Amino acid sequence: xxxxxxxxxxxxxxxxxxxxxxxxxxxxxxxxxxxxxxxxxxxxxxxxxxxxxxxxxxxxxxxxxxxxxxxxxxxxxxxxxxxxxxxxxxxxxxxxxxxxxxxxxxxxxxxxxxxxxxxxxxxxxxxxxxxxxxxxxxxxxxxxxxxxxxxxxxxxxxxxxxxxxxxxxxxxxxxxxxxxxxxxxxxxxxxxxxxxxxxxxxxxxxxxxxxxxxxx
Length: 216
Ligand SMILES: Nc1nc2c(ncn2[C@@H]2O[C@H](COP(=O)(O)OP(=O)(O)O)[C@@H](O)[C@H]2O)c(=O)[nH]1
Ligand SMILES: [Mg+2]
Description:
- The protein has helices at 9-20, 53-61, 66-69, 103-119, 138-150, 166-180, 201-211; strands at 23-29, 42-47, 79-84, 88-92, 123-131, 154-159, 186-192.
- It is of the alpha/beta class.
- The chain has a single domain (9-211), classed as 3-Layer(aba) Sandwich (Rossmann fold), CATH 3.40.50.300.
- α1 crosses α7 and α4 runs parallel beside α5.
- The site of magnesium ion has 4 residues, from α2.
- It comes from Phenylobacterium deserti.
């Protein structure tokens, strides 16, 4: 919802074409030593459970069932890897802020996510998803701290923008930009998306393409 479009029509069209190519589920990993070799650029999606990570991966790849297929019980606690056009890996990190699991169990998943973020040499950018109805919560702030500590470039993506009014989306983008302005690893753009309506999806594709420095 930025006033100046960051990507021109050509960049958006290139990204549309790239993401129209095949995306496949590669594998799930439960431990750091089970990760695929770091031989492709990766972007990772992080956020609280239910924030809309799987829906967003489905929306950018135009595949309704892709991430849901990996969303069976157990799978959401793994790191799931999807490969686009055999050139970019999209990484679905375990959700944090579980209400129903013990703190120890929750911490273990967070550690896997944190270890991944800390130690992944081919990670080009992490997307931290924030529910547009709620904005940044304390638990998200902890995730931001972890990103900043790990010096991983991350970008905030608001999800479910269709659930609030357009002027509220704009206000939340501005507020969130202010909240992250002093964070060293935060990318200075906030993207508002709706997987339901498709809002912001072309822009997110272009962001990913640019972050991975991939050309058509
Ligand atoms: N209205 C609306 N609902 C969404 C959107 N994205 C996700 N949801 C819903 O939010 C719930 C959680 O989504 P999911 O992608 O499974 O979240 P995850 O746990 O982060 O992977 C599901 O019921 C989705 O249908 C969106 O853009 N708009
Ligand atoms: Mg999910």
